[in-house]
Amino acid sequence: MTVPDTATYKALLDCQNGKVVVKEVLVNSEGKNHLKKPKVKIEDNKLSVDCEARAQELFAKWKSEQKTEVHETVRNIYHEVEKSLTWWQLFQIWCGRLLLIVIMLF
Q: What is the pTM of this model?
């Protein structure tokens, strides 16, 4: 994306021997940001005006090609158990497992 900019060129034109010529340049100003002064040529009664904004073009190209690097960091977060199981609770769990095995066998 480019930001709009304005360069100005105003001149008085005259006709000499059937050809257009620049009689007097009134205003030839640069743009506010990136534009240089306009280059004006008159060839075969054709007016051509060139305004260069090279720095802005290079920046736009660089910005479109620029890639963001992402560094991923993995962190393991351990949560401590407030209380571990008592021996009685562990005994009940093992008895339940044995009971399930006995039921499945018969």
A: 0.40
